[in-house]
Fold these 3 entries.
Entry 1:
Amino acid sequence: MAKRNSSNRSWIPVVSCGPADRTSGLYWDAATGFLGCWSRYDDDPGDVLDTLVTYLEEAADMLETPALATRDQPGLIGGTPIWLGSVDPAREDQWQPLTG
């Protein structure tokens, strides 16, 4: 397995863990078609074995019907969509769950 912070020309970053986060997230591997996790700190959060299409379809389903959310809960802070798992603990009281 390649190191997560290694430079790999077939990896395209597609998701970060926060709006200004450049330390970790998900990448799409153009060679395999699957998503994987990356981290500047060489964390090992585990592999994500979804395709980008599957990941985006599941995210859309969870936004349309929040009760389907199995990985993380969608919500809003000040009108901005944000997943509960990426909310800074100091702002959790501002997070409101989506209702579908």
Entry 2:
Amino acid sequence: MERKFNWPRITLAFLIAVFLFAFGLLAGYVAKEYIQGASLTLEETARNEIIELETIYLLDSQFQCNTEALDITSSKLDNLGELITTLEQKKGKNDQEVLGLKKIYTVLETRHYLLISQRNKQCAQKYSVFFYFYSNGEKCHTPTKEISTILAYIRNKYDFVRVYSFDIDLNSDIIDFLKKKYGADSCVTVVLDEQKINFTPANAAELEAYLLKSRNNL
């Protein structure tokens, strides 16, 4: 028995398949171009923030104990950290541009910390400082996320708190120095006012207790 083919239907199905395939390629290309464009914009914004931060640091050195410049640098440093986190999510943790920006960010964080330390010694302002060392390794994802959330909560609750985050996997002499000084060799290490502390990751109240106790000793 001779089998008859419905050529119009087969042709239509073939054309639909070709269209869907081509549309998928086009959509992928457009998405890639959009992501690359957005990443370049973020990189440019981050670099502009870095330039402004450097300038404000110079201005701040001329007006010691004035809180305005320090407040601006604190805000810009937080904004820069968020930009780098967004870039890291878009381009990947091992992207060379992202790693380069993180190295610069590490330098700026360290300089900001030195400003804070100077204020604590010379001015009436008293700040509590957290160093947060973390690893981007896959096995460290859960603890770093938990403690990042707690530290963000503490930072937003208390105006006198500063949090400096350092990626221990970053190829940086500053990171290597700080890692050795504070013994930061695990997924997460938290240092509060020069003292390495241990606390339950899910317990923000315990960390607050450490903070308030340390605060009394400033």
Entry 3:
Amino acid sequence: MKNLAVLQHTDSEYLGLMEDHFESRAIRFTYLRPFTPGAMLPRSAEGYAGLVLLGAGPRGVVSGDLLPSLAPELRLTSDFLARELPVIGIGVGAAILAIAAGGGAEAAPLRCHVGTARRTAPDALAGFLPEQYPLVTYLRDRPVPPANADILARDEAGEAALFQTGARGFGFLGHPGLKTAMIEDLVMEFDDAPADIATALERMRAVQAALATALSEIMVGLIAATGLMDAR
């Protein structure tokens, strides 16, 4: 059974609705929590089939309260990429993936937005990425995909909502398996919260069912594109 390393940055954010999709395909996952006292990250990708980099709430990679474990996370991500193992970055995790892959990140304020992502090509995620799907973002800073990355979807402002770097690296600006309770917990976990968060939460509740429906297609495509069901 394959095992994913899932790098968690806060108590509140986790795989969410993605958990059931991995479990139904007999893909295990192990949460790594570098923010807990005494916790250490693996020195390499050895023993793992892939890496998921979750969001970090109000913490950033180039501005604000910087992610304390950023340096070892970049080294670990680089090792997964060098071994051509799947790497899935979400929110600030997508910025970490972008940096490790040769791109970067730009400073941007903490924000929470509910909008729509639209795919850029019909064959995105092996043809399974919906033509459009709900995009819920909660992050500080902005990933800058490498110059050779493929932009698979964009938001209303034209910003990359989903990008692919290399054969198996995928960066999601918003959490595709988000549960509204995660954002509620983030607001309680940290003093720093986006402006007008109450309105954003109301909009999230309105799109929760559509988010779950889109995730079913996204996960089929993601599993196919990353090769996580392959025999290797």
